[in-house]
Amino acid sequence: MTRLALLSDVHGNVHALRAAVDAARAAAPDVIAVAGDYAVNGAFPAESIDLARELEAAGAVLVQGNTDIAVADGDYGAAYPWFGDAVPESYRVVAEWTAEAIGSERLDWLRRLPAERRIRAGGMLLLVTHASPGSQTAGFDRNLDESVILERLGRTDARVICCGHTHAPEVRDFGWRMIVNAGSAGYVFDGDPTASWALVDVVGDAVTAEIKRVEYDVLAAADAVAARGLPGDVYRAATIRTGKLVR
Q1: pLDDT of 74-130, one tens digit each?
Q2: Is residue 247 situated within a structural domain?
Q3: At CB < 8 A and 24+ separation, what contacts does 167-172 make?
Q4: Residue 153 falls within a domain, yes or no?
Q5: What CATH number does residue 184 fall under?
Q6: Is 98 within the bounds of a domain?
Q7: Number of folded domains that form the chain
Q8: What is the CA radius of gyration of the chain?
Q9: Which helix or strand (DSSP H or E) is residue 225 part of?
């Protein structure tokens, strides 16, 4: 058996990340994977990156998310293509604040992260990616047309696609492919203000996956964002506090 613990979308919320990592470690996985978006939005980006790097040093598999591009390189068009030429100023300001807060060495680390990693579990291939195979920005949103989902699933040979990006945790098995979306260990959107992560077990040709939730000090994380006072922080703090996207 191979057991994988999947986390994603930390977004500078080290309180949530610590809780999720502790829960994941308690499940005794063979490997931990983190599917990107480490720093922007929360008040503790440096601490979040440092904990992610501790995981990496211990053998975790890490990939880069779309907001990591905004922070590390200031390429807002690549990070947020759905805005076109009108990326909101609040997105730019928080990315710039985050880049300054984490410093040049952590920025270099974000830049070096790969977009995708692959894991062999016996004869089964698992893909770790932020949004979907071949993309850091085109995710598996719940309201997507099924034909679009199937087209995105067809971009890989992996049986299991381990991802995040939508901030809404779920497991969907199409038989030939399985989507395991860990949701968010820091900035969840599904109305449950806890840290979400996923546990994947592979036994021979069989794979099972389930979403896990863990409580953390939500008010401390939200209050720290509200106290920062950047444009949009009142909405970011409300999102953390409620578990629903507020904007």
Answers
A1: 999 999 999 998 999 999 999 999 999 999 999 999 999 999 999 999 899 999 999
A2: no
A3: 167/9, 167/245, 168/142, 169/196, 169/197, 169/198, 169/211, 170/142, 170/211, 171/198, 171/209, 171/210, 171/211, 172/140
A4: yes
A5: 3.60.21.10
A6: yes
A7: 1
A8: 17
A9: helix 218-228
